[in-house]
Amino acid sequence: MTAGGQRAVEVCWQGPPWIMRYVMKHWIKRIVIALMVLGLVGGTAAWYLRRGKGQTVSFHTAPVRRGDLIVSIPATGTVEPEEVIDVGAQVAGQIMSFGKDVHGKAIDYGSVVDEGTVLARIDESLYTAQAIEADAQVQSAKASLQRAQADLEQLKAKLDQADRDWQRAQKLGPSEALAQASYDAYKSAYDTAKANVAVGEAAILEAKASVAQTEAARDRTQRNLSYCTIKSPVKGVIIDRRVNIGQTVVASLNAPSLFLLAKDLTRMQVWVAVNEADIGKIHLGQPVTFTVAAFPGETFRGEVGKVRLNASMTQNVVAYTVEVITDNSNGRLLPYLTADVHFELDRHEAVLLVPSAALRWTPSTDQAAVNYRETAENPTADRPTGEGNQAPASRSAKAGGEGKANRGVVWALEGQHVRPIHVRVGLADGVNITEVDGKDLTEGLEVVTGLETQAVAQADTRNPFAPRMPQRGGTGGGAR
């Protein structure tokens, strides 16, 4: 405090001067100490904030591994039984009971049945009455036939008597011994008896036809009666039971469906919808792999059995149904599971594989080792002569010849920096794995796929006590 200021304070102070001098002396020391503390705190905070703007950068790596690479077409399908039979009812009536399966249990979902096994019984009282009535009509028709046959014999006897009388009349002729009227009467009786025999024979034919008609009606009623017992046409498994006891089924023009029966569940099919752009790559016998959500991690195998030609169109997208045949001897696959299917186009076994991100990642100039910074600036430049082995060419290389299309660069750690490894790129699964080969590329080598950035401190607006999480980043641009 200046002398002028101190004197002004003393003028305002009305007490003893020594008290004022004591107070001023000690307050000046406190103010100086406070200013020093504030300066120290401010400097520390500024250093902390400057340090917080920095980041510790490390490389995110993945090992080169050896394995099989498969190029495939993905699609979605449904697991279906190879042969399904819809068992219906040919007569109307009420379901009275169910039959027994091979294990002696009532027919239900999943029941195993043999050929001829009774599945259900329909109320047969009406059809039994019709069968009895038809049988009675047959007996009546047969009795009428027997009567017609007896009548014919009687008529034949009368014809024989009339024939003998007419022959005697012809020998006597009209004379004094036989009057003309009697002669004419014998002739008429003979003709009438002859005609009656023909009528009797016709009556027999009619009676025989009536017997045949009633027997056919009886057979029809017997068949309808047999339809009241629903039997399995083949050996198989009940997939669906669509009726309950007490339910009335009505058979009109279409037979109502009662049971859905799979003939053989040891062989299944996967019906796959394949886009028209990919259908040209599908052929009979093509290997197929698929998975189902019911058994995660388990891969099933099959082959293409049929390509259906009746394409379907949904929202202007044309798709063909492809039937994939697969073995189901263990019974794990269930009907109507959704399957994620992959049609195998190409396969390379026991090749070196890297994440596709390793081919896309390029370091900055300061991240590359001193001798390789030119490569970091231009990773697509031609590699030195003789560097790298000949690897299986990719599909694009096969189609377009040897060129840059099948060259690439991956980066391996070298101390705190990275160094390039020129490789030849082979097949790629189209998602995240690519086949590579190169002179310096070995199994287990760690290649860089990106940056793993650890923030030392967050911005001012964040809570300094919050946990700091690693951040990943990288630049794309490597040749594939």
Structure description:
- By secondary structure, this protein is of the alpha+beta class.
- It has a 6-stranded antiparallel barrel with strand order 2-11-15-13-12-16. Strands 3-10-8-5 form a 4-stranded antiparallel beta sheet, with no helix packed on it. The chain has a 4-stranded antiparallel beta sheet with strand order 7-6-4-9.
- The chain has helices spanning 3-12, 17-52, 125-172, 180-227, 356-360, 373-377, 395-400, and strands at residues 55-63, 65-81, 84-88, 93-98, 112-113, 118-122, 229-231, 236-241, 248-249, 257-262, 267-275, 287-292, 300-307, 312-314, 317-327, 338-355, 407-414, 417-428, 433-437, 446-455, 470-473.
- The protein starts with a helix and ends in a 7-residue tail after the last strand.
- The chain contains 7 helices and 21 strands.
- The protein has 5 domains: 3-52; 58-68 and 349-473, no CATH class; 71-79 and 263-348, Elongation Factor Tu (Ef-tu), domain 3; 83-123 and 229-262, Beta Barrel (OB fold (Dihydrolipoamide Acetyltransferase, E2P)), CATH 2.40.50.100; 126-227.
Summarize the structure.
The chain is α+β, with helices and mostly antiparallel strands.
